[in-house]
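anyone seen this seq b4? input:
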Amino acid sequence: MDQKALQAKIAELREAAEQARALSVDLSDPEAEQGFVELARKMDAEADALERTAERKKASRHAVKGD
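predicted toks r here
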């Protein structure tokens, strides 16, 4: 996955996590609310992992170029 695709996926995950959090506030069922909160947490964790991958790729490119 190239850098632009990684950044797009990260943004998509962050937006989906925010939407899940917003939905959880509107629910009266505590179990459903918790499910959306957990979903948001998982999407944030995946976005964090992709950000680390993007940083490693960027660092390795700079190391190869000698920057």
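The two ends are 22 Å apart (CA to CA). DSSP finds two helices and no strands in the chain. kinda curious what u guys think
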